[in-house]
Structure formats: C-alpha cells, structure tokens
Design goal:
The chain folds into three domains: 13-202, no CATH class; 211-432, Spore Coat Polysaccharide Biosynthesis Protein SpsA, Chain A (Alpha-Beta Complex); 460-538, no CATH class. Helix content is 38%, strand content 14%. It has helices at residues 32-44, 48-53, 64-70, 73-84, 87-91, 99-112, 122-133, 166-175, 177-199, 204-207, 224-237, 253-260, 287-304, 324-331, 334-339, 383-392, 400-408, 446-454, 474-483, 519-522, 535-538; strands at residues 26-29, 115-118, 214-219, 242-246, 310-315, 318-320, 348-354, 367-369, 378-382, 415-420, 424-426, 460-467, 488-490, 497-499, 523-530. The radius of gyration is 35 Å and the shape is elongated.
C-alpha cells in the first residue's frame, strides 16, 4: 500500500483505515435527487449482454443494475429508493449506527476531510481540490458518461426517460431525505469555505495546523531569473506571506570587511577537517561563502525583530516535489509534533530541502528523522531557533549550512529533524541543476565550465617557498632543504614546496613544472626564503 500516493474509487469510510496515516481524504457530492435519477438511468442503460458477461461484478443480489433493467422507475424506487437515496450518508458513516447518528457522523467526517466538492459547482470545486493537492488546475475537465451520449458507447443502449409523476416525486423526496440533510449541510459549508478562500486565498501556510507565519527568500539582486522562478514556485505551492531578502555579494563592503577580519577562520588549517594537508575538495572559506553567511544572518536577525512564531527560509533556486504539500500537511501538524515530543517553545529546526536524490522519490508515508543533512535550500524554524543560531555564532569557522544543520543542530538545546521523503530540492546542484551556483560553479554548461576552471576553492599547504632572482642560488637552496629531508623542488612543486626565482610574482612563467595561473592564490607557504646574490656576480653568470 505504501508504494502508492493516490487512491481513487468508491470507498466506504471504514475501509480507509487500511491506508496509513497521515492521509488526505477528498470526496465529491451531488444533489441527491438528480444523483438518484442518474443512478437509475445509468444502470438501466447497460446492455444485458454486458451484465451477463460480468458475473462477478454483478454477483450481489438484488443488484441495482439488474433491478434497474427489470423495473420501471416507480417500482425501482419502491424497492431500492431508501437504500440508494441515502448512499452518501451510508458511505461516510459506520454501519452499526442509527440513521440519525449516521447523518451526524457523515457531517462530522465530511467537515474533517482535506477538501470536498459539489458536482453542481464543479469549477469552484476543482480549484479548491487541486489547490489542496498542489496540482495545477486543468484548463478543461472532460465530461464523461453523459446520459445523452451513453448509447454511443459499446456496453450501453439508449433508454427513454419516464415522466415524473406525483407518486414518483413523492417517493423520490422520501428516499433522499438522509442524503438531502447531508447535502444541504455540505452546500452551506462549501459556500462558507469558498468565501473564506476568496477573502484569504487557500494557502499551504494557513491550512497547516501549525502555520508558517512568514517565508523568507534569499535572492541576489542581479539574479532576475531566479527571483522570477522562486516567486512563481512559492505562489504555486500556496505560500502567500513571503518576503524576498536581498542577498549580499562577495564585493559587498560588509563581506570584504568581515572576510579580512579575525571573525573568519583563515587557512591553515582546512576549515572542514582542521588539518593542514587533506583531500577536502573545498578547504578554504571564500568570499562567496562569507557573502552567503551574511545573507543568512540578515534573515535570522530579521526573524528576531518579528513577532511571528514559525518561519520558512528558502533559497531562490528551489522546487517542490509532487508530494510536497501532503508531506507539509502531515508533518507540520500538532499531531506529529505530539508524536515526536516536539516543544514549540524550544529551539526547533526541520530540514526540508536538499540536493536531488533517491530520498525525493520515495513513496513511503512522511515522517521526521533525526539524521543530519545540509538543508540550506529550505528549512523550517521557530523564533527560538533563530535566537540560538545568532547567539551560537562567535566566529565563522564553517559554511553556513554546516553551522546551522550540523554544528548547532547537534547541540542539546536544538530539536533537529529532517522531513522524509524530502519535499524540496535545489536547482543549482545535482542532476536537476539548471541555475549556475553562485558559490561553486558546477560546470552545467559551457560558461559554467569556464568559471569552474578559474574558480579557486582549495589551497595546497606547503612548508617552503624559496624566491629570488635569476642566477641567485635557488637550486642550491633546494638541495640544502632536500638534505634536511624536505622535498622542495627546483623549478617544480615538491611535496614540501618549491624553490624558483619565477614565483616571486604572479605571472606566466617561462618554464617549470607547476601550475602558474593564480599561483599565490593556490598555495599557502608556511615559510618564505628570499635568496639574494650580488648582482655583479649573478648577471655575468
């Protein structure tokens, strides 16, 4: 059962218990009088050959199809009217109750459903139901099995409609009383919800039992396509109360000042593993990462100035999966918070979005996991969590995602979870990437591959850099250091460093076996030895 996301059919309310919670239930109702007449003529229009060819389908006796084929309308209603006329009530209530109790229970169950629609108000019903399912509203909905065209189909034949006599009208009215009470209640509730929807559009944030009070979106002013994308995405998802926070660029004065200060950990060591030599792909904090930090700090401080309680923070390159809304509905709820013993007045962090992977495609029921995951693309937090993050930041020694979702998330003060399956993914990393990453180029197209070649995110640690001028003795110094068991290459990069007059400046080097572009930015040297020789001796040599 857990392999499926949607079930559609004629279900009795009690049978839905086999579908694991949390689940959303949606149904359609029809005006009882027209529904009962339609039921009769639909059954009567079936050919006998079809009924006889499906013995299992029509094994229940008396079956409405068999009775409808055999009886005119009046005797049919006299025999089966009370049963079929209360069909909606019976399907929405338990069998072991009195009729009055079944009507009351049907009303209660209907009001608790995620949504319901009325056939007579189809367009409005479709809009509400598709909003709940977070699916695009179809431009047109086909009309199927219309009575006037049934005879054109293989298993149907034309039937003549009978005149509705006073006797038929009387028995019709009596038969549909239970369903009429339910339908009248439903119509009133539908109108009330529709009015509320028009006054305050149906949104994910307001339909959650734990509402998202405000959504903050981080976006660089220069990234127009990203801004256009994210606004369309959050509005399509139903997040109405959002604010775009202007992200800082690496060239921002604040970022430059912070980057050059002691507030940011400098290399060595590697900020990830705290070693001088390592295999980490990115071992230095670079200006785009500090700019990213400043942007998140702006959001956190904005939250602390707010009177709201619950917040969604997202980057401008995210997308919601098809199951996202049902996952949000299931997990951002009082019931789920009670189940996981979550206290809303203590720091709470729920990771929601990460790089696309198999976890986004899983079909199991939603749940919260305590695992650590880098969820900067999208996460849920309360005001207390924002306060904990700001108070915990003494110095920038990690990327923002590691600090938020691992360092602070792992502390005893924080209630940390991630949503499973993942309902959000980003569009600048992984197989779904379509935007250029503003921190590390991923080579998703030709221009990004050019950026990737020029991008420096790693520094090599070496003990010695020996510089000088031509014919100054850099070869001699290299041999001296080798005698001391330091592999310092002459005109090439050794394990412990290099000795060459050329590397005194960043330029294109005429020879030598080492990378020359942005040389000083690609290496860190613990010691610099400057070799000097008397020019009167060096020049002639």
């Amino acid at each position: 059962m857990n392999r499926f996301c949607f079930f559609s059919g004629h279900f009795h309310i009690d049978t839905l218990s086999v579908v694991a919670d949390p689940k959303q239930i949606i149904t359609m109702l029809r005006e009882p009088r027209s529904r009962l007449l339609s039921d009769y003529y639909f059954a009567r229009a079936h050919k006998w050959s079809y009924i006889y060819s499906e013995p299992k389908r029509f094994s229940i006796a008396p079956h409405p199809f068999d009775e409808a084929k055999s009886l005119n309308l009046l005797p049919f209603l006299q025999k089966m009217g009370s049963e079929l006329g209360s069909c909606m009530v019976r399907n929405l209530s338990s069998n072991n109750l009195s009729l009055d109790d079944r009507i009351a229970q049907a009303k209660e169950n209907l009001s608790a459903f995620a949504a319901f629609g009325l056939l007579e108000r189809m367009s409005e019903s479709i809009e509400i139901i598709f909003s709940i399912l977070r699916l695009p509203v179809p431009e047109a909905v086909p009309t199927l099995l219309e009575r006037r065209t049934l005879a054109e189909l293989e298993y149907f034949e034309k039937v003549e409609e009978e005149e509705l006599t006073a006797e038929i009208e009387d028995i019709l009215e009596k038969s549909i009383q239970p369903d009429k009470l339910l339908y009248d209640y439903a119509a009133q509730l539908f109108s009330s919800r529709l009015k509320q929807n028009l006054d305050s559009p149906l949104t994910v944030s307001t339909s959650l039992s734990l509402p998202i009070d405000k959504t903050y979106i981080i976006n660089l002013p220069s990234e127009d396509s990203r801004r256009e994308h994210i606004i369309q995405e959050v509005e399509r998802f139903g997040l109405r109360n959002y604010e775009v926070i202007e992200a800082l660029t690496p060239d921002s004065p604040l970022v430059k000042e912070l980057f050059e200060s002691d507030m940011v950990l400098k290399f060595p060591p590697c900020f990830r593993c705290k070693k001088n030599r390592c295999a980490c792909d990115n071992n230095i904090l670079i200006p785009p990462q500090i700019a990213n930090w400043c942007s998140y700090l702006t959001v956190l401080k904005t939250i602390l100035k707010s009177d709201d309680k619950f917040f969604l923070v997202c980057e401008d390159d995210i997308a919601f999966t098809d199951r996202a809304q049902s996952i949000f509905q299931a997990l951002l709820s009082h019931k789920t918070f009670e189940q996981y013993d979550i206290h809303v007045d203590k720091p709470l962090l729920i990771g929601i979005g990460k790089t696309w992977g198999s976890d986004h495609e899983r079909t199991h029921p939603p749940y919260l996991s305590h695992e650590i995951a880098m969820c900067n693309p999208c996460f849920f937090l309360n005001r207390e969590m924002a306060e904990l993050l700001v108070q915990s930041l003494k110095r920038i020694e990690y990327t923002s995602d590691t600090f938020i979702h691992e360092i602070v998330a792992s502390t005893a003060e924080c209630q940390n979870f991630i949503m499973k399956p993942s309902p959000v993914y980003d569009l600048s990393t992984g197989p779904k990437a379509k935007f250029h990453s503003t921190i590390h180029p991923k080579g998703i197209d030709e221009s990004d591959r050019v950026r990737e070649k020029e991008h420096i995110k790693r520094v090599e640690y070496k003990e010695f850099l020996c510089i000088g001028h031509p014919r100054c003795g850099t070869g001699f110094i290299s041999e001296v250091l080798k005698a001391m068991r330091y592999e310092v290459g002459h005109e090439y990069m050794g394990y412990n460093g290099i000795s060459s007059w050329m590397v005194a400046v960043d330029d294109v080097y005429p020879y030598g076996n080492f990378q020359s572009d942005a040389f000083s930015a690609r290496y860190y040297f613990e010691h610099i030895i400057h070799v000097i020789r008397n020019p009167w001796d060096a020049i002639p040599s």
